[in-house]
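Q: I'm teaching a short session on how sequence maps to structure, and I want students to see two examples side by side rather than one. Could you give me a first protein with its sequence written out and its structure tokens following it? Keep the formatting plain so it prints cleanly on a handout.
A: Of course. Example one:
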Amino acid sequence: MRHKAKRLTVFNHKGGIGKTTLTLNIAAALASQGKQVLLVDSDPQCNLTSLLFSDDVVNDLLDNSDTDRGRTLWSSLRPVVEGTGKAKTVSPYETGVRRVHLLPGDIKLSNFELVLNELWLECFSRRIRGINGTNALSSLVNESAHHLDVDYVFYDTGPNIGPLNRIILLDCDYFIVPAACDLFSVRALNTMGQTLANWIRDWETVVGLAPDGAYLMPGRPRFLGYIPQRFKTYGQNLVSMHAHYLSQLEKHLYSDIILVLKKLDPSVSVSRIASTKLGEVQDFGMNVQHAQQQGVPLWKVKGGNDALTREAERVFNGIAEKIISKAK
């Protein structure tokens, strides 16, 4: 049975827009409001794991992920890739952030991604190996959600629209779009909306072919909202929000994502796109680097700019409150 925890991802296949930073800070803000959160580092670059754990801990995790002591995502999914059995149960780690746990990432997750296309095609041939393999990550996360009885699961993803992100989005109840107010972010939305629609349609076909009683991802990710932000991108310090690009961003979010998904599910509706803005994240300057070095949320930084620290706490608590209200 699928656990009641809401599964989300901060997703945009455009790189360099702070998905990992946003994910950690949103999770920490939810935890500060009493929610139990499970983070899943499903990006083979392992940025979230590296952010939360020291180098020696990360090195130990990666060095032992192929052994019986392995506790990364790869340690679990390796039997699926090698065709030796089902995914192995691994226990999430506690982090330095209270009420936040982590299923650590692994650079070897790229091996899992390589076989996902093959497993995906096997689903359409009603082969149980394809069904089980495609749903293996979701099943692992489900076990951990039951074990910890969490309220929210957040996947951290890489900047692409590959087969690994396909199964992650299909497993999520909601997705949040982060975007800088620039031309590149706006252009990325069209590809994102059409790709999501194709994934959802294909999965509907797979569900119809799957045997009764099979564990299956829901395959119906819903747009929860967007977060315009001003992290440094492409060497530019986006200190002031450009009204033109913000307007274009909202226009394309509605036309390229909301309307595209609404054709698949008429219940997907918003009165106006501006109402889906979860918050606006400014450029927190050196506080971001301090937070990354210390492995803490932006408002727990030591030695940073106090005014920016207070602003970060206000902004992310506001985002958390909106998520709690909307993700039901």
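Q: Perfect. Now a second example for contrast.
A: Example two:
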Amino acid sequence: MSRAKKIFSLLPLIVGGLLFISSGLVFAAGNSPGGEGSPLEKAREALEQKLAGQPGFAGIAHSEEEGAIIVFLENEQAKGKVPDRFEGFSVRKEVTGKFQALAIQAMEAVTPLQTSQLTRTGEVRPLVGGISLSAYISGTSYAGTLGMVTYNNKILSNAHVIAMNPNTAKFLALGTATIQPGSYDGGTLANQVGVLEKYIPITFGGTSITKPNYADAAIATLGVDGLSGYQFDEAGNYQVSETATVTAGDSVGKSGRTTGVTTSMVYVTNASVKVYYTWTKWAYFKDQIAVNQPFIQSGDSGSCVDKGGSFVGLAFAASDTYAIVCKAGYIISRLGVSVSP
């Protein structure tokens, strides 16, 4: 992926006149659902109402280009519950498996790191995106990814990385320590880099079908030096700023704790998905970006996803088939962060 903003050293970044992005500008970036909906979109929403919450249902999307509804399923057996056509539109059934929040999986099985990636799991100062991060929870070992040091000096990542107990999916108290590296990678209170300041609440279970979620994100205060927008890259760190919209077929990239810098292609930008945070506790998310795998793995939750150096959103969940990215607009408007100098 072309990165015009790539640099080759970690030099202090001098940023003046930091500005917050207004909600009007955020949604001008194309991150809010709008319009009355096409006939296909209306049919998809009707089918979603019928299927959401049913056993084996993993999510749904639609493609205006193909004129088709796409249904994601946890297993082959669930295919029989989904019609081949609905309200005059073809229905494509895809067995994706379950979508899971990936910091949870980092506790269970992490792909062995390559030598060049080991520094991502160590202490990195000043802070940049793409490195190991977690909350400090006594007796709990896990890790996700620091997404970005924002331009108003906040540590941005997923809520389930810095604001949630991964064993219970319960939110932590504001003021809980944020550590880098994460506890899975040996981080302790001696590695504290800030404290939890704000998170976007997540509704779990059947209630989230009628009151869906739109973003898994949180911020912590910045208690050490950080480089706003910069992302860790073994080939030379690069900077992300401003926002970008994506469409199906676009190439996007990310820098993550486990898999480093990767690129892949956007599949759809209108997905609704059921995301598991523990083996039994799940939440329903709407208006999400699905990116073709391979893109992220366990421990990459929180990674900043960009298109040509502009912020697209945060990766937070995946199956073997697709990675799920929550959109920049929802994150910025709810947390009040600035992603532009």
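Q: What should students look for in example two?
A: Point them to this: The chain has six helices and 23 strands. Also worth mentioning: The chain has two domains: 23-30+98-335, 39-95.
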